[in-house]
Amino acid sequence: MQRQELENYIGQLLAVARFKDYAPNGLQVEGKDQINKIVTGVTASQALIDAAISQSADAILVHHGYFWKGEDQTIVRTKKQRIAKLLAADINLLAYHLPLDAHETLGNNAQLAQKLGLIPTARFGEQELVWRGELPVPMSLDTFSQHVAIQLKRPPLTIGNPGKAIRTIAWCTGGAQSYFREASNLDIDCYLTGEASEFVTHLAQESGVAFIAAGHHATERYGIEALGKHLAQEFNLEHTHLDLDNPV
Ligand SMILES: [Zn+2]
């Protein structure tokens, strides 16, 4: 298919225009016009680019691309190395940040809910990025934490009373620990995100709402893969998802 057609389709599917974001969503580095093979991954790291080149991909789709608000605007050092490789190989780089977090079926929050068996019931917060839902059967914080470890293949950082019963949960994938403040005012048992900051320990202890940091990468590896699978089916594209391990 044509690159432009792919870009238009995803733009509509993820309602890209609806979001205020910290980086451009859509085509970030232009490559060839014709796309047959796509590679998906969480972050457009050098390792992902090298792997995509060795697999003769025509486009790389990621959740974390480039050109973030506030970052150095020059193309030097590691950024130069990455972009030089992309341009030399004529590979397209497309990135979808908040629109991919938010999509109701393919998005990171939706995919994480599926993985953990959470039933979504509501959304709240900035651009409705935090989801709220329930476990079909309540379990102790300790048991839920072990469940998260098994499902995401990584032990989470869990703060709270291990025996506390967990039924209602709010979650937002990635680096969304700052939303714990707002979430802790709601009637929930636990807040789950990817990363932690120092303040979350005190807030969890003082509010009684448990906190789980299950990994930024680990909570965001499912959305971009689901998008890739969807595109492969829809347009008969070849698709490979590369899950390059990241302990953070
Ligand atoms: Zn992220």
Automatic annotation (TrEMBL):
Keywords noted in UniProt: Metal-binding
UniProt xrefs under NCBIfam families: YbgI_SA1388 (TIGR00486)
Residue numbers binding a divalent metal cation 2: 64
GO CC terms, sorted: cytoplasm
Organism: Chitinibacter fontanus
Name of the protein this chain belongs to: GTP cyclohydrolase 1 type 2 homolog
Keyword field contains Metal-binding: yes
Domain of life, per lineage: Bacteria
One example GO MF annotation: metal ion binding
